């Protein structure tokens, strides 16, 4: 089965086509242009580069959150629309799990962190086990100190990756010392291939939903809803 | 062969999709309004609106197709609003339209939201003769647009601060009437005396066709504050009528100036405020005195909807004016200056 993977939850636009989990073609763009401009031409190109036609795609996997609200919506709208027209299922994939996946075989604690503004990150904690990222905690939106607190409960080194690493690297090192290790640049960015691979696995495991059923995992309420809730004393 | 256009509109707080055949046969026009949601916030909240668009866009498109008895494969093109509007909201419609155009291998058409409002007039009357003038008045716009020929737009005047609809909303909120303000004030104004309170009319410098409503808005707010301080009762109907008259007089006066300058014989109206009873009555009166006719889209096509986008898209389709798959949302898109 051919699975198209779409990753647009962070400033990186990533697209890939996998055949039974094997990567056929992948594109990644981190050029600060909006996904709205990049994404669809990338999808078109990757399908052509995979040497297949769009109608051969058997499922569309998409990074469904957490991440940038706008990025998520562009990715989800695109994925759901394509799947609806092609009459194939969609698979929502955790942005954080897709980030952790390439490091999974190392068998250690992996903590992807994404910029969530307001001095917080979106984070999950995974343990790599036989090519999978086993979820231990999350997804959460929280401050770095709070995250480090949570990480106390597991022993050994923690590998951090994700687009919030440059901003918080020093602070994490100060708090955790040499327990904290950081992934190399090439493993720092979310990849369309990881989304497609996870999507394929979920499909193989009986996952995938009709296109209209997939929703974004924002994790956070909008600013206005938070304020309204506060005003209503809820 | 007939030309079947799907229109998609998500620029503000309505998620809408419509199917239009051959420019006049409106098969469906589904509008999912978020007005109840935004009421609790006292106005449109961009992030909340964008989230709702993502939830609504597919059900609305599917309903529009089903009601029109059309399958995606029957579509000739997809037309979508790509600006002006709220960027996060626009992006949902744009992403859906682009994915449809690509997956169906049909042309993508980018439509300016104002071009859509103006095109609502052509839905009912496709044979209007150019040149035309259009007064576009809504929550986001107060524009005087001259159309020398089809597809050509010249902005003669625009608001320098608040849009007319925005002034209505703000004044309605200050008067404790609620949201959206336009229809509430219009209704109340019918029972009031428009001469009761003297409010300023901003005509700006000699010959200008621009608008400014912020001074008027402040004058109303001052009036309310003063009354509150002196613990005076205010007659809300009189206040609404006087405020509305001040807005309408300026709109109509400038429209008639534009008529004189361009020599048009037909004045179109567009946008949500075009539904305002006071505005329609006065414009009608002044236009017929000047030997002009006033054209108004059906009321349900004055507020944001996708039928008007499909209609504007239809004429672009005829011209072969298509957008590439790199089409982006342009929140401050200027009329007549497509960016793709
Ligand atoms: Zn509008």
UniProtKB/TrEMBL annotation, chain A:
Gene3D superfamilies: 3.30.420.40
Any matching Pfam family: TsaD
GO annotation, cellular component aspect: cytosol
GO biological process: tRNA threonylcarbamoyladenosine modification
InterPro entries listed in its UniProt record: ATPase_NBD, Gcp-like_dom, T6A_TsaB
Residue ranges crossing the lipid bilayer per the database entry: none
Domain Gcp-like: 32-134
NCBIfam families in the cross-refs: T6A_YeaZ
Protein known as: tRNA threonylcarbamoyladenosine biosynthesis protein TsaB
UniProtKB/TrEMBL annotation, chain B:
Keywords: Acyltransferase, Cytoplasm, Iron, Metal-binding, Transferase, tRNA processing
NCBIfam families the UniProt entry points to: gcp_kae1 (TIGR00329), T6A_TsaD_YgjD (TIGR03723)
Reaction catalysis annotation: L-threonylcarbamoyladenylate + adenosine(37) in tRNA = N(6)-L-threonylcarbamoyladenosine(37) in tRNA + AMP + H(+)
Cofactor note: Binds 1 Fe(2+) ion per subunit.
Compartments (UniProt record): Cytoplasm
Residues reported in the UniProt entry to bind Fe cation: 113, 117, 304
GO-annotated biological processes: tRNA threonylcarbamoyladenosine modification
InterPro entries hit by this protein: ATPase_NBD, Gcp-like_dom, KAE1/TsaD, Peptidase_M22_CS, TsaD
Gene: tsaD
Listed EC numbers: 2.3.1.234
Function: Required for the formation of a threonylcarbamoyl group on adenosine at position 37 (t(6)A37) in tRNAs that read codons beginning with adenine. Is involved in the transfer of the threonylcarbamoyl moiety of threonylcarbamoyl-AMP (TC-AMP) to the N6 group of A37, together with TsaE and TsaB. TsaD likely plays a direct catalytic role in this reaction.
One GO MF term: iron ion binding
Top-level division of the source organism's lineage: Bacteria
Gene3D superfamilies per UniProt: 3.30.420.40
Organism expressing this protein natively: Desulforamulus putei DSM 12395
Protein name as it appears in the record: tRNA N6-adenosine threonylcarbamoyltransferase
Predominant location: cytoplasm
UniProt-annotated binding residues for substrate: 136-140, 169, 182, 186, 276
Recorded family membership: Belongs to the KAE1 / TsaD family.
Domain (Gcp-like) ranges: 26-310
One Gene Ontology cellular component: cytoplasm
Cofactor(s) the protein needs: Fe(2+)
């Amino acid at each position: 089965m051919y699975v198209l993977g779409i990753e647009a939850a962070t400033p990186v636009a990533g697209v890939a086509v996998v055949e039974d989990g094997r990567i056929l073609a992948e594109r990644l763009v981190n050029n600060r242009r909006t996904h709205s401009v990049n994404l669809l031409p990338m999808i078109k190109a990757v399908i052509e580069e995979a040497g297949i036609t769009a109608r051969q795609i058997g499922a569309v996997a998409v990074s469904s959150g957490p991440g940038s609200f706008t990025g998520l919506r562009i990715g989800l709208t695109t994925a759901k629309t394509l799947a609806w027209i092609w009459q194939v299922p969609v698979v929502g994939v955790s942005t954080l799990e897709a980030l952790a996946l390439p490091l999974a075989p190392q068998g250690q604690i992996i903590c992807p962190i994404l910029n969530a503004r307001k001095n917080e990150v979106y984070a999950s904690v995974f343990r790599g086990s036989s090519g999978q990222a086993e979820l231990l905690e999350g997804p959460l939106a929280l401050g770095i100190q709070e995250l480090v607190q949570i990480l106390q409960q597991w022993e050994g080194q923690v590998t951090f990756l994700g687009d919030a690493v440059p901003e918080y690297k020093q602070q994490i090192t100060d708090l955790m010392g040499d327990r904290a290790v950081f992934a190399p640049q090439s493993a720092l960015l979310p990849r369309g291939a990881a989304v497609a691979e996870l999507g394929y696995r979920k499909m193989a495991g009986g996952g995938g939903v009709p296109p209209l059923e997939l929703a974004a995992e924002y994790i956070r309420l909008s600013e206005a809803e938070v304020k309204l809730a506060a005003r209503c004393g809820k | 062969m007939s030309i079947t256009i799907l229109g998609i509109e998500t620029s503000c707080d309505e998620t809408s999709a419509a199917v239009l055949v051959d420019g006049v046969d409106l098969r469906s026009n589904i509008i999912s309004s978020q007005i109840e949601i935004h009421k609790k916030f006292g106005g449109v909240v961009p992030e909340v609106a964008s989230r709702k668009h993502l939830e609504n866009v597919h059900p609305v498109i599917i309903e529009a197709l089903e009601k029109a008895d059309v399958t995606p494969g029957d579509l000739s093109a997809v037309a979508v609003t790509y600006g002006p509007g709220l960027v996060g909201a626009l992006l949902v419609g744009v992403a859906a339209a682009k994915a449809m155009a690509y997956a169906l291998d049909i042309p993508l058409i980018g439509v300016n939201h104002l071009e859509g409002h103006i095109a609502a007039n052509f839905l009912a009357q496709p044979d209007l003769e150019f040149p035309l003038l259009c007064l576009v008045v809504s929550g986001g716009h107060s524009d005087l647009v001259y159309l020398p020929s089809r597809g050509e737009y010249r902005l003669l005047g625009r608001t320098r601060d608040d849009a007319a609809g925005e002034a209505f909303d703000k004044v309605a909120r200050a008067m404790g009437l609620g949201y959206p303000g336009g229809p509430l004030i219009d209704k109340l104004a019918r029972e009031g005396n428009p001469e009761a309170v003297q409010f300023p009319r901003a005509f700006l410098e000699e010959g200008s066709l621009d608008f400014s409503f912020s001074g008027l808005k402040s004058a109303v707010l001052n009036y309310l504050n003063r009354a509150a301080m002196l613990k005076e009762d205010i007659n809300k109907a009189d206040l609404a009528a006087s405020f509305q008259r001040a807005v309408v007089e300026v709109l109509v006066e400038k429209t008639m100036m534009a008529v004189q300058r361009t020599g048009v014989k037909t004045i179109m109206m567009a946008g949500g405020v075009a539904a305002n009873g006071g505005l329609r009555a006065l414009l009608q009166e002044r236009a017929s005195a000047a030997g002009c006719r006033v054209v108004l889209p059906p009321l349900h096509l004055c507020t944001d909807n996708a039928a008007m986008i499909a209609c504007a898209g239809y004429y672009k389709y005829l011209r072969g004016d298509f957008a590439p798959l790199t089409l982006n949302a342009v929140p401050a898109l200027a009329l007549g200056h497509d960016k793709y």
